[in-house]
User: Which sequence fits this backbone?
């Protein structure tokens, strides 16, 4: 049984270095880290009083909120597609 190779990538998020290990391609891991970094900077620009811990939690809350909205849209589209297929 062959195990998929893990990538070990060092990225910078909000001025801190992190080593991320995952099976996704290196460019995907960098893209995710860059998106988190951008979102943290965006939130910080609107809330300069936040410490890093609160900023990280708000970033996570925003990311999960966006994920849930997209998941709900996907499920609604999937349901519509299934209904359309039944009509055919």
Assistant:
């Amino acid at each position: 049984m062959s195990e998929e190779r893990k990538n070990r990538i060092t990225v910078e998020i909000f001025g801190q270095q992190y080593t991320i290990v995952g099976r996704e391609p290196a460019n995907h891991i960098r893209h995710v880290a860059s998106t988190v970094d951008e979102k943290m900077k965006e939130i910080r620009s609107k809330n300069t009083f936040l410490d890093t811990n609160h900023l990280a939690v708000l970033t996570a809350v925003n990311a999960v909120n966006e994920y849930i909205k997209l998941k709900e849209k996907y499920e609604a589209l999937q349901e519509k597609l299934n209904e359309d297929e039944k009509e055919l």
